[in-house]
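Protocol step 4 of 5: obtain the predicted structure for the target chain.
Materials: sequence only (see below). No template structures provided, no constraints applied. The aim of this step is simply to have a reference model before the mutagenesis design in step 5. Sequence pasted as it appears in the construct record:
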Amino acid sequence: MNKRICVITGGGSGMGLETAMIMGKTHYIIICGRTAGKLQHAIKTLQEKGVECEAFSCNVGDLYSVRKLANHAHELGEVQAVIHAAGMSPHMGEAEDILKTNALGTIYINTEFAKVMGKGGCILDVSSMSAYLTPSIVMPRKLYKYALEEVELFRKKMNKRLQIFPKSVRTGVAYGISKDFVIWYSKQSALKYGDIGLRVVCVSPGNFETPMGDLEEEEASKFMSHAAIKRFGKPREIAYLFSTIVDERNGYLTGLDIICDGGVVASGVSAMSR
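Step 4 output (structure tokens):
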């Protein structure tokens, strides 16, 4: 097909779908989810907007599933942008599953797509403001380095660390840790892949009006009084940020995390102090 490809994980709804609508003006879109059939409503919505697109089954927490996705995208054309928005919130699974999807998923996406992308390409990893709100003392940052050496060893060490926390808070802690890791790993990836002309940038969203955001609405609302902009963000707002970051004209932008949270983190509030 020889098209310019944009891959969006978690593209079936919310910020991922809004980003697909914008990126679809200049790219062929592949939206990904665990079950391609569940993405058909999103595909129909995009096609009605004139977007060339397809759905592809991918479990980001599985290396071979991600490798299959990357190879498929490469066969279609030039993979210019990957927006990795898929993830699990504390209400969506057990602590180990959250870590696997959010942390290992980012490792697999960055590693496999770096093999098929090059100069002018950009991978955008999505973290969360929770990485900043979770107390630093909780973060096992000395363990992150194992992700660069042996992923399975990293997974085992991280899961062992999670076991020290009471079960009642374990999923929330796993989420904060996994998203802190995403920021760290994104920066490491930027350094690693800069020589091939591939940019890697991270974005940490705050509270947005999305299906995932709805699951966390009660918890998220507690931070609203601390925000500079006292409302939830609209998916279109962060989709614009995503699409701007991956644009080739931002060719000098790499190796950083951009917080888009309406000013919550700037207030200095934390998960403990609110």
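Step 4 remarks: Strands lie at 3-9, 28-33, 53-57, 77-84, 122-126, 199-205, 257-260. The two ends are 52 Å apart (CA to CA).
Proceed to step 5.
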